[in-house]
Specification:
The structure is a single chain. The protein is of the alpha/beta class. The protein folds into 3 domains: about 210 residues, FAD/NAD(P)-binding domain; about 35 residues, no CATH class; about 80 residues, D-Amino Acid Oxidase, Chain A, domain 2 (2-Layer Sandwich), CATH 3.30.9. Helices cover about 30% and strands about 25% of the residues. It has an 8-stranded mixed beta sheet. A 6-stranded mixed beta sheet has the order 8-2-1-11-18-17, covered by helices on one side. A two-stranded antiparallel sheet has the order 3-7. A hairpin with a 6-residue loop joins strand 17 and strand 18. The two termini are about 20 Å apart. The structure holds flavin-adenine dinucleotide (FAD). The site of flavin-adenine dinucleotide has 42 residues, from helix 1, helix 2, strand 12, strand 16 and helix 9.
Amino acid sequence: MAARAVIIGGGVVGCVTAIKLKESGYDVTVVDKSFVGEESSAAGAGIIFPLMPWNYESKVYQLCSGASAFYKNLSEKLIHGGFGDPEFIESGMICIEPSDKKEIVQWAKKNNFKINECLFNNRPSFELVNVAQINPKKLMISLKRYISTLGVRLIENCNLKQIQRKSNYINGWPTDNNGLIEGDIFIITAGAWSSNIINNGKVEIYPVRGQLIKFKKPSIKLDKILYSENFYLLQRKCGAIVAGSTIENVGFDNTTTFQAAYELKEKTISLIPELKEIEPYEQWAGLRPGVKNNIPLIQKDSIHKNIYINSGHYRYGITMAPKSADEILKLIQA
Ligand SMILES: Cc1cc2nc3c(=O)[nH]c(=O)nc-3n(C[C@H](O)[C@H](O)[C@H](O)COP(=O)(O)OP(=O)(O)OC[C@H]3O[C@@H](n4cnc5c(N)ncnc54)[C@H](O)[C@@H]3O)c2cc1C
């Protein structure tokens, strides 16, 4: 009989981990406190790249490598299987007038990453050729359909409680209505909430709110993602332009604010003045699973021998999901 793997949290990290475990022969269940794919993972911008890898430890880019190829392949499967189009686009990204020009050139050379010098509105810039994007909301809708078809069991509206530490192994995880989700191994992929269910003082993951706004002006065509000073603009297939994002430490509050909309619009106008007269038609927020140095926790629990954690992907969870799923699988099979 296949080993039963219970994945706690159905965001992009949980869903991609589910695919990899299922492909490796596990009997997989994904449990979510609300609905699969409706938290941080659906709220993201969908840039498949760690915006400024030259400013991070090399582990960050290592966890992002191979992501474009993974999503390209997955998108083809999702489209051809009739699960939906997650709008994967190999658009490239323009990094406008960066202050860390030298670091970018060194990083690109070291990592064999293609960059071209270019001008954006007469400002000296770099084009990062192999940067891709995806529509996270559409990705999560199609991923949910896809994993169900693979035979992954989905249990929604089921909030798992903080684990009581009594033995080295557990054979079930308690739910907050006195139920038990049985399994042989448990993988925590509960995003910003991960520390709430396994708080041993070592899992330090905290919510970091990010807000985005969306404009529509059909005459504007953005072939490439634009990035400048921790701010980006990108265009969805339908023509909508997404601007983001804020980085706010406000706990588990995912409401949107007027201030954020104002600041994001000002930054947008500084790159595309034609959007001055257009008001954003949508604003939303998500809670990123914040972690020190943007390096997720991919590890076995220090007490329970059949609990694993794959969480804390902070700003790049969509990009890091495939590689971190590979890493957790390796740990499970070790
Ligand atoms: C504004 C914004 C922009 C972003 N842009 C990008 C980007 O361009 N590129 C990129 O790669 N990343 C981006 N990110 C980051 C990325 O979205 C996150 O890192 C990623 O979504 C984290 O995925 P996750 O599966 O860990 O968390 P989530 O998607 O939050 O999933 C966690 C799930 O666990 C469930 N859960 C929590 N507690 C429990 C419990 N007790 N019991 C059962 N279920 C539980 C939740 O309901 C939720 O569905 C962005 C994020 C934001 C907010």
